[in-house]
Amino acid sequence: MLALVLDTSSAAVTAGLVDCAPDQPVLLAERVTVDARAHAELLIPSLRACLVSAGVRIADLAAVVAGVGPGPYTGLRVGLMTAAALADATGLPGYGVCSLDAIAAAHPDQQDLLVAGDARRKEVYWARYRHGERIGEPAVSKPAELVAKRVGGSAMAGAGARLYAEVLGLPLLDGDFPTVAGLAACAAERVRDRAPGEVLVPLYLRRPDAVEPTARKPVTA
Amino acid sequence: MSTDQPLVLGIETSCDETGVGIVRGTELLADAVASSVEQHARFGGVVPEVASRAHLQAMVPTVHRACAEAGVALADIDAIAVTAGPGLAGALLVGVAAAKAYALALDKPLYAVNHLSAHVAVDLLDNGPLDQACIALLVSGGHSSILQVPRVGGQELTELGATLDDAAGEAFDKVARLLGLGFPGGPLIDRAARDGDRDAIAFPRGMTGAHDDPLAFSFSGLKTAVARWVEARQRAGEPVPVADVAASFQEAVVDVLSAKAVRAATEAGIEHLLLGGGVAANSRLRELTAQRCERAGLRLRVPRPKLCTDNGAMVAALGAQLVEHGAAASRLDVATDSSMPIADVLAR
Ligand SMILES: [Zn+2]
């Protein structure tokens, strides 16, 4: 039950190949490059490198797993468009994973974990987890607002947590970006159950910036 | 892969149209387009983030529509072509991501092509192969150029003239907004102008002075002249004759475009003039250029209006030419280029 796994919700271009058949999914190949501007260039070559290094053909795959964010839109869309087209071309089911869940999956023992990604514009995408289970929906906030609202926890992880570690003030754990293993852990059950494929919908969390035009200025003032 | 009459899927996402076309050689099999234009109308222009979101949503359904229309399965496709630039950076990325994924999954070569060259190559689908050079007038919301094209769908073309400021389509959008007609301006001005007198107002013809570059364009001064004229009317408390302004403005644009294109062909001793790009859908530009070509003894090639505006078939048409002529495919790490130079037909 081989799954091609990808995530582009962060500065990392993450690609991997995982066997989801065993209870503990087995990582067969992984390519991670941290370059926030190269998702479109690197993602497909990285996925292909994973297939080649593991000696796996497209026809051997059982599923496509993709992080659906939240994350900066341009990069995020590259991953989701890639996953959707791969699933479409192969007829394989596509499964979406909240990218923050994939970071939390690396810390199943944490009783109260804050995961925060870098949302740019001095904000973070965040969610809270008890023993790896998310509480509520992911959101986007200024780090200081989280402190003011006492959105605490006993530890934190993610690139946003590292960036605003001083403001957030919680013990910082490893794992800045969603990993292939974390993504696979969140989707393994669906892969094993051959669950119906999903439409991969990005978690934007913000509306597009667009302003309706104001009255035109006359050229003859 | 058969290099004769290849079956090519073309993907276009450089602006607000998600286009997927399928061709076999120079035969058009499918031209599916999903447009997000209504979502941009209230903003008076294309909002890049809105366009990018719409591309992601529309892509797979549009691919399916194209395959159904063409009566082919994805597995039958010989090659994937996609617009690599120029265009909106975020929008281009969605199309290129899709194209790369289809290429990898189907194990087919990828051709990352220039949008402007595709506007020229689409002519082959309606007017068939051309065994000699032509002059192309390429006019759209983003570009206004006169090109020398040794072979339609080939990799060598030379820009003989371009706009120094606004593109022709941009001028249409701005004047449409000034007249309260809405967005996008091209079709709205075209429609309004039908009821107007194109000689009612003598708007300036840019770049037609004795010392001006004979093949360059400028539409910024015209746009300002229209605004001044309309504002003077409004200040005098008189009604604005929208149809006359639209017709006279449109005439000023298409007069310069067609005159310079005909001049370029005549001076180069080239017999064929090709019209392409969104503004080539304008009925008056088609009419006036046809008249002037006939007078000058030139043959005009212009695709049907639907193939002039942005679509995937034009990308597929160019891709098919590249395959047929043995061009090396693009690498799977090829980058998009929002300001891809017009002379670069294929990105590797
Ligand atoms: Zn165009």
Estimate the global geometry of chain B from the Cα principal axes: globular
Encode the helix/strand succession of chain A as letters.
Answer: EEEHEHEHEEEHEHHH
DSSP summary: helix tally of chain A: 7
Say which CATH homologous superfamily of the largest domain in chain A is assigned.
ATPase, nucleotide binding domain
Sequence stretches where pLDDT stays below 50 over 5 or more residues of chain B: none
Mean pLDDT over the residues of chain B: 96
Instruction: Quickly count the domains of chain A.
Output: 2
Summarize the SSE layout with pairings:
The complex is a heterodimer of chains A (221) and B (348).
Chain A (H helix, E strand, L loop, with lengths): L1 E6 L4 E8 L6 E9 L4 H16 L6 E7 L5 H18 L3 E4 L1 H6 L8 E6 L5 E7 L2 E9 L1 H6 L6 E3 L1 H5 L1 H4 L11 H13 L29
Parallel strand pairs in A: 1-4, 4-5, 6-9
Antiparallel strand pairs in A: 1-2, 2-3, 6-7, 7-8
Chain B lengths: L6 E6 L4 E8 L2 E9 L1 H5 L6 H23 L8 E7 L3 H18 L3 E5 H7 L1 H5 L6 E6 L4 E6 L8 E5 L5 H11 L6 H9 L26 H16 L6 H27 L3 E5 L6 H14 L2 E3 L3 H4 L3 H13 L21 E2 L1
Parallel strand pairs in B: 1-4, 4-5, 6-9, 9-10
Antiparallel strand pairs in B: 1-2, 2-3, 5-11, 6-7, 7-8
Helix pairs in contact in B: 2-3, 4-12, 6-7, 6-8, 6-9, 7-9, 8-9, 9-10
The site of zinc ion has 6 residues of chain B, from helix 4.
Descriptive terms for the model:
heterodimer; A: 221 residues; alpha/beta; Nucleotidyltransferase, domain 5; 2 domains; five-stranded mixed β-sheet; four-stranded mixed β-sheet; 7 helices; 31% helix; B: 348 residues; six-stranded mixed β-sheet; 12 helices; globular; binds zinc ion
Task: Write up this protein.
The complex is a heterodimer of chains A (221) and B (348). Chain A has helices at 39-54, 73-90, 99-104, 143-148, 159-163, 165-168, 180-192, and strands at 2-7, 12-19, 26-34, 61-67, 94-97, 113-118, 124-130, 133-141, 155-157. Chain A is an alpha/beta fold. Chain A folds into 2 domains: 2-99 and 178-192, Nucleotidyltransferase, domain 5 (2-Layer Sandwich), CATH 3.30.420; 107-168, ATPase, nucleotide binding domain (Nucleotidyltransferase, domain 5), CATH 3.30.420. Chain A has a 5-stranded mixed beta sheet, with helices on both faces. Chain A has a 4-stranded mixed beta sheet with strand order 8-7-6-9. Chain A is globular and about 65 Å long. By secondary structure, chain B is of the alpha/beta class. Helices cover 44% and strands 18% of the residues of chain B. Chain B contains 12 helices and 11 strands. In chain B, the strands form 2 sheets. In chain B, strands 3-2-1-4-5-11 form a 6-stranded mixed beta sheet, sandwiched between helices. Chain B has a 5-stranded mixed beta sheet with strand order 8-7-6-9-10. In chain B, helix 10 (283-296) links the parallel strand 9 and strand 10. In chain B, helix 2 packs parallel to helix 3 (89-106) and helix 8 runs antiparallel to helix 9 (242-268). The radius of gyration of chain B is 20 Å and the shape is globular. Chain B starts with 6 loop residues before the first strand and ends with a strand. Chain A binds chain B through residues 39-45, 47-48, 58, 73-74, 77-86, 88-90, 202, 204, 208-213, 216, 218-220, and chain B through 42-45, 47, 49-50, 52-53, 55-56, 59-60, 63-64, 74, 89-90, 93-94, 96-107, 177-178, 224, 227-228, 231-232, 332-336. The complex binds zinc ion (ZN). Zinc ion binds next to helix 4 of chain B.
